[in-house]
Amino acid sequence: MAFQASTLRQKLNQGEYSNAADALLRWIKAKGGMKLQGLVRRRTLERSLFLSEIATAAVIISSA
Q1: What residue stretch is flagged as signal peptide (predicted)?
Q2: Where are the domains of the chain?
Q3: Residues 2-52: pLDDT tens digits?
Q4: CATH number of 3-62
Q5: How far is the C-alpha of 31 from the C-alpha of 29, rounded, in Å?
């Protein structure tokens, strides 16, 4: 699987959450390598949510 060797997974495992959020923006292509504008919008929104205080609190709670 692509995720297993991804920068996104590596950054998450290293606790580099800001860099992991940036790595989300790389996941914007469909099969065949075609960039999809819908995925660009979705990943941008997911990045914002990931960096929000709510998401940060969830990470803190889950690692307690």
Answers
A1: none
A2: 3-62
A3: 889 999 999 989 989 899 999 999 999 998 999 999 999 999 999 999 888
A4: 1.10.530.40
A5: 7
